[in-house]
């Protein structure tokens, strides 16, 4: 996502506000007041409340993809264990981060934006087009760096599994059970990679 410096500064303020106060269910005027700007300024930069939320989620998603790359570098430099083990280690590190209760407001916001985007809310036009593709691209790059042979269908399954379990967490599922389900998925993935 390419944004101007002033739009990025506003996004950073909205993200900080969302972390502290939450923005789900808040009007554009409430969000503007919370970040010390006017609703007109937010409209100028993002077109609508939904456009603002889509931009916020897009930036958070980019930060998480950047984290995936950083974690992959850490895993790659940790030595030469079996192929599937590196993939599993990376998947568990990323899961620990995205399922952290501290990120729950952003996960809730992600699903809120998906919900309004599927109804063509103003300002969300590009959101669905970039919902999964950038994750697949980053994951392919990471897999190459780790020397893993995976295809986009397998990567899409990984993204969908993670998102489904995050939705379970939002719906009140036991975090231990959700974590156990994700770990089972990782073991299945590792078995496929190693041929075990």
Notable characteristics:
196 residues, mainly alpha, 9 helices
Q: In brief, what are we looking at here?
A:
This protein has 196 residues and is mainly α. The protein has 9 helices and no strands.
Overall description:
Keywords: DNA-binding. Residues 4-64 form the HTH tetR-type domain. The protein has 196 residues and is mainly alpha-helical. It has one domain (57-194). 73% of the residues lie in helices and 0% in strands. The chain has nine helices and no strands. The protein has helices at 5-21, 28-35, 39-46, 49-76, 83-98, 104-117, 133-146, 152-170, 175-194. It is elongated. 26% of the residues are buried. The mean pLDDT is 87.
Helix content: over 70%
Largest sheet: none
In total, how many beta strands?
Answer: 0
For the record, the count of structural domains works out to 1
Content-based structural category:
mainly alpha
Compute the separation of the termini in Å: 40 Å
Question: What is the typical, i.e. mean, pLDDT?
Answer: 87
């Amino acid at each position: 996502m390419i944004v101007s410096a002033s739009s990025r500064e506003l996004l950073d303020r909205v993200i900080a506000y969302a972390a502290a106060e939450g923005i789900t269910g808040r009007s554009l005027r409430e969000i503007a007041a919370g970040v010390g700007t006017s609703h007109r300024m937010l409209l100028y930069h993002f077109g609508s409340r939904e456009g603002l939320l889509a931009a916020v989620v897009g930036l958070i998603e980019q930060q998480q993809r950047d984290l995936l790359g950083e974690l992959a570098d850490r895993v790659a430099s940790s030595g030469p264990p079996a192929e599937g083990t590196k993939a599993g280690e990376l998947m568990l590190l990323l899961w620990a981060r995205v399922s952290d209760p501290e990120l729950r407001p952003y996960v809730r916001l992600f699903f809120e934006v998906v919900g309004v985007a599927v109804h063509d809310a103003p300002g969300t036009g590009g959101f669905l087009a970039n919902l999964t593709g950038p994750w697949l691209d980053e994951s392919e790059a990471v897999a190459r760096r780790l020397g893993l042979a995976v295809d986009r269908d397998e990567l899409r399954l990984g993204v969908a599994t993670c998102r489904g379990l995050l939705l379970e967490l939002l719906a009140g599922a036991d975090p231990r059970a959700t974590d156990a389900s994700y770990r089972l998925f990782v073991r299945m993935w590792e078995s496929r990679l190693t041929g075990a």
